[in-house]
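REQUEST ID: PR-0412
SUBMITTED BY: lab tech R.K.
PRIORITY: routine
TASK: structure prediction, single protein chain
INPUT:
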Amino acid sequence: MAVGRVDFSGTVLGMMPSPKDVVATQRQLSYERIAGSYEPVTRVTDAAALDLDLLDISGQLVLLTNDGFAVAQAIYQKGGNSMSIARIVLYEPLPANIPKGSPVEGTDASGGAALGTMYYDAPLGSTELSVLYTPSDIQAQHLSCRVGGLPSQSQMLDGCFAPTGSVTVEGYGTFQYVYNTVVDNTNGRTIQGLSTSAQQKMYHCSACPYPEYQKFYEYYGAFDYANEIVLAALAGNSTSFSRGNLAMASYSRISRSEVAKKAMSSMHVFMYVIRQMEHAISGCREDDPDAVHAWDEAVAYYAGSLEGSDGSGTGVFPYSLADKRCANFQTCGVDGNATAGTSRINDEVMKEFTIGAFHIMEGRCESVLASKTSVARRMTVPLVQSALRYVHRRSALGVTHEKTLAQSAIFAASVVPFVHACSEEDAQIIYVHSGTQSADPFYGEVKAAFERNYDCMGITCEDVGGLFDEFAGGYFQGAEPCRGKADDAEQPPTAAASSSAPVSSAPAPAPTGKAATATTAPTKSPFFIDTSFAGGRNETLSPTTEPSAAPYNKDDGDYIDFSAGNRPGHYGASRRFAIALVVLTMSYFI
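STATUS: complete
OUTPUT:
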């Protein structure tokens, strides 16, 4: 079921300021919805496809080899699936200046049409053109030229400009060219770039520093803190921040891969969603026609492409984390009392995104700021839930393997700067019990430290919920929801109190494509591993076993679906299945 949709067509919008004029004259009747609930008014398929980079990176890291880590780093730094650019060399110098944005048409490697626009201004006499490929409005077919840092078996070359031929620049003539399709097709958007551009885009811009980013910079003392964490994880090094360091020199590859993957989504992408919202607000105030496009891109980064236009997919960006954690904290459904379906956080965030887009097109810029603040605060909830979940595994459930320590550390690192801005003492408590070197964590201390700062962080006890034990039908003892100003509803019993007669709240219907279902207590152990997908054996995983050869149960959240249609326009069926066999031998994601 779609949520929060606003119809931007017709007379309801009245007199339009400049952003609306552009939308009214340039947009098509509709674009594919994002995650089933948000209807963009501009084309953002290319931005949404950045999640395919993270999917490819994860597919390399799961190999746990030197080559796999090297390829993962290449994709992280060079991209491959988003914002493809061809750098072609001309036989003759340009007879005139050609401005950025000029339409370009040529022939692709399969004999079809290759379309793009000038990525840079090309001055008189230049012998090189940089052409940005024009993406499709259809998400699954967004680009037919994908190279960048992708391994050869994952590259798509048929849609690239042919190795030699001619291109026509509208209004400027036709030019003969030559180039190397593998070397000279690069990408202007990478996951690394979301962090390495932060100093310029989030700290030194005209409306900067952005408040959320400033908290992270002041805590870590590095502008590209997220990038430094990923590079240290891939190399097996330690960070050298002013505080909050992660020591990974002794970590196994599986643990370092967890840090790298989760940092990319929960730090790089998380903060860039906020950046795009801030950019849209600045554009709104300046009557910039691109303001609504920046806002649409914020939504595209939040959800990615893998959630699908109907919201039934499984992604790897912040939207996906919210859905995974709501199952653990019984905060799914429109009422936030179910353990399956779309999270209430996502329902609220997507509604707020829709409201914000409407305000931009109406020129109500301060109302857009209120929407941005609401979204940013709600985005922190799954990070808090994740930090609590993994320290609880270590403290209360006795799970001691290194991978869980790594998960605990990176999720804490993704949210502790927000706590630090409220209380340095509580931030230190969380770091000491959740960091990479924490030896004897105490869940109660971490839970209390977070809860003391909910009001300051702009979230509530009800938002976070409590760690729910689906096998016993109640909350884990000591992990129940706290009681805040807005949390007066009766809570389900703890697992200990309900052991004789498990009780679970009736789940609310899911607002989008993920159906909410009642939780029934299975008979298997919480550490049961289902390997039947790969034709393997079923076995029980000890809490102290390093999961190097078996995946977690997909219901545990460490799972992603590589089934047909979930990897649009990239892998063939046989390749998807082969990767699935590899990936499902590991604990995969979140």
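NOTES: The chain has a mean pLDDT of 83.
REVIEWED BY: pending
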